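Issue 218. Parser rejects a valid record. Input:
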Amino acid sequence: MVGVAPQDVKRLSDRDFRVPTLLSSGDMITRDTIENALKVADSFLVVYGSTESFTVSYKVFTLENISEHQQGMLGRPVAGTEIKIVDEEKRVVDIGKTGYLYFRSKHIVKTHLDGTSCLENGWYPTSDVCYLTEDGDLIMVGRSTDFIKKCTVKLSIKLIEDYIGRHPSVDAVVVVPIPDQAVGERVCACVTLRPDHEFNEVELKKFCTETMPHPDVFDCVSMHPDYILYFPSFPLLASGKFDKKTIASLALKKISKM
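Output the parser choked on:
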């Protein structure tokens, strides 16, 4: 079994090797990521967890069951772990309804380093917005901070990244909000490119127009990026994840010079 960060899976798809299983975690896994993983592995293991709890849920994908994938699918809880989805009032919601994910197990850290409890009545609260399917699979819509509020509409950052990441020239994409007096926040897509590809903003915007859902007739707010910026590479955190705060700051500086 080989572990790899979600943003690195695409880079492995054309390599000349094969492993029994690839494992990835730390972000929402797209269908495109799974398809790339299965080019070099017999199975792909999606794991959802946190520093405080290790593993909460998992899902194994193969060529035989990849059709079951849904955007944001995190699989089912590991043995000994309970989950629930609650609303703003901490009330459990119905199956299929979105809310905040809470979980509990004997493996969860009970206190923060300062000694204060990190649990609410035995449950660990998260900012992850999720829902449960009738089959018991956990689906993540995003984190409460993973949305861009444009006018009165909340746009899913993960969904926008998923669409842009399907372009063959794009290696990785990070979408960040750009403050704007007129609409509140605008959508900025920061991209790195695959080898032997050149940055073409016009082509990328055309791709977004052709593949992304059209704006709702009522609110007319589009998820299409207002800005698409090229980065030679993305700064990383010690964990290997993209440093999104630094990327957002650099994007704001680039846009201010336009």
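Fixed in the parser; the record now loads. The first strand starts at residue 2 and ends at 3.
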